[in-house]
From TrEMBL:
Residues spanning the signal sequence: none
Domain of life the protein comes from: Bacteria
Domain annotation Circularly permuted ATP-grasp type: ranges: 91-469
Organism: Adhaeribacter arboris
Name the record gives this protein: Circularly permuted ATP-grasp type 2 domain-containing protein
InterPro entries: ATP-dep_Glu-Cys_Ligase-2, CP_ATPgrasp_2, UCP005522
Length: 493
């Protein structure tokens, strides 16, 4: 007989757990039975009283505080105020078979996107063949004319990609959006695992969970693989805008764990199309730069002329093949949310394969038919600007007021190219400890996976960042909008 258990047998922090009809709960079946791969976790948690769990929760916060795991929200009135990243101790568990499907899907997707980026800055064949509308690409605010004709080492443009996925009520995973400009959050994946091990170590002894700790060395290996000069050990650096950036913790964390310098624009200079780092021993040539600076501020000679964050002349050095930039400038033209709707066709065009992962149906407001539909059905849709990140500018129709929808309609009418809409997807729910309620409740969750592409190298982090919408009923999981995260466990085969 199979070992099937019900949440009703669990009291304490799970007392009164509410299953929501119409949504997939990843821990409990619609009948309230515990899915088998969560049995050991529930067995551990049922031993805790509310007071026990609050104490463990505080221990996790101390772990994050000691690690310096913080983030800032740009809307904070007190600029530079740092917060401890919200973290939930109940892990999300993904089976080996599910992960195999996801891993193959994100590799396929990001290989195709890489070929697409190379094409739109060179032959533009996919545009000539009418698979993707040329005006859609050329009107993108992230299309960088300065990248025309540039072929980086290994022909890799999106070295680091973040693919956001949701699990729908039908049990299938869907890609929500692609992030190939400068995807963030991977440091929280590693910090989450560290906090879990310190707080609930016994759980790891009962599960065969794949490690995430090799990510920094895998990233360094990817960086070294695309170095322009392979004769010597390349000098690699992480380029940050500085301490006031919301993701500065991640920049410093990755530089430290890879064992390479963390630099700002003022630490680098270009001479005769080579990039150098200022050191106490004199100038040192730099071969590979993992940049966490937006295109616009990267080179004042090529982009924003008054930028003080970048390095004058660095794009010229890049064009000459004397330095590698991760990710390449101009990749944002491929993660435009309007271009997202064409990714299944992009996969078929370049790889000759059917997409492994599903897209969410997308309405492009610049198209008359789609525009009319969005205006008439806004209450049933999620409306997004095509070029924003962090959850900014999103309107969830079902959670909006009539006044908000009418105002947004005016904004869309003024710039239809900037907006898309998607059906309100039934993001899966996951048991999450809610401090103010002192118990577990179901909260909506998504997953950001991290794919690395190098010269003849591919790697997908075995897990990813499971982000949780901590506000009851909210579908917006971004930390900048009040979301938190969970440790993501991928079980070994």
């Amino acid at each position: 007989m199979s070992d099937v258990r019900s949440y009703e047998t669990y009291q304490g922090v799970f007392s009164g757990y509410d299953l929501k009809p119409g949504f997939l709960d990843e821990v409990f079946s619609p009948e309230g039975k515990v899915f088998p791969h969560y049995n050991l976790v529930l067995d551990q948690f049922k031993q805790f009283t509310t007071e026990d769990f609050n104490e463990l929760n505080e221990l996790a916060k101390v772990s994050f505080f000691n690690q310096g795991v913080t983030f800032a929200v740009y809307s904070d009135k007190a600029r530079g105020v740092e917060r401890i990243f919200p973290f939930d101790l109940f892990p999300r568990i993904i089976s080996a078979s599910d992960w195999d499907h996801l891993e193959r899907g994100v590799i396929q997707r990001n290989l195709a996107i890489n070929l697409f980026i190379q094409d739109i800055y060179n032959k533009k064949q996919i545009l000539r063949d009418g698979i993707v509308p040329a005006e859609l690409i050329f009107s993108s605010s992230h299309y960088a004319k300065a990248m025309l004709g540039i072929n980086p080492v290994g022909n890799i443009y999106n070295h680091i990609s973040g693919t956001d996925l949701i699990k729908h009520s039908d049990g299938q995973y869907y890609v929500l959006e692609d992030n190939v400009r400068c995807p963030s959050g991977v440091s929280y994946v590693l910090s989450n695992r560290e906090a879990m091990k310190k707080t609930l170590f016994n759980l790891f002894r009962k599960h065969d969970v794949l490690s995430v700790q090799d990510y920094p060395q895998q990233l360094l290996s990817i960086m070294q693989s695309v170095a322009p000069n392979s004769d010597n050990e390349p000098t690699c650096v992480v380029l940050t805008p500085g301490v006031y950036n919301s993701a500065y913790y991640e920049h410093s964390f990755l530089a430290l764990t890879m064992g390479i310098p963390l630099v700002e624009g003022r630490d680098l200079f270009v001479d005769h199309n080579f990039v150098y780092m200022k050191t106490i021993y004199g100038p040192q040539r730099v071969d590979v730069i993992y940049r966490r600076i937006d295109d616009l501020f990267l080179d004042p000679l090529a982009f924003k002329a008054d930028s003080v964050l970048g390095i004058p002349g660095i794009l010229g050095a890049y064009r000459e093949g004397n330095v590698s930039l991760l990710n390449a400038p101009g990749t944002g033209a491929a993660d435009d949310k309007a271009v997202y709707s064409y990714v299944p066709e992009i996969i078929k065009y370049y790889l000759g394969e059917d997409p492994i992962l599903n897209n969410v149906h997308t309405y492009r407001c610049e198209l008359d038919h789609d525009y009319s539909y969005v205006l008439e059905h806004m209450e049933e849709l999620v409306v997004k600007p095509v070029d924003e990140s962090g959850g900014y500018g999103i309107l969830v129709g079902s959670n909006s007021t009539r006044e908000q929808r009418e105002e947004l309609k005016k904004v869309i009418a003024a710039n239809r190219r900037k907006y898309i809409a998607q059906p309100i997807m039934s993001l899966s729910l996951h048991s999450t400890f809610i401090e103010k309620e002192n118990k577990f409740e179901g909260r909506h969750i998504d997953l950001r996976t991290y794919t690395l592409l190098g010269k003849d190298k591919q790697y997908v982090l075995k897990g990813g960042l499971s982000r949780v919408a901590l506000t009851k009923g909210s579908l917006v999981v971004n930390s900048s909008q009040g979301g938190g995260s969970k440790d993501t466990w991928v079980l070994a085969k």
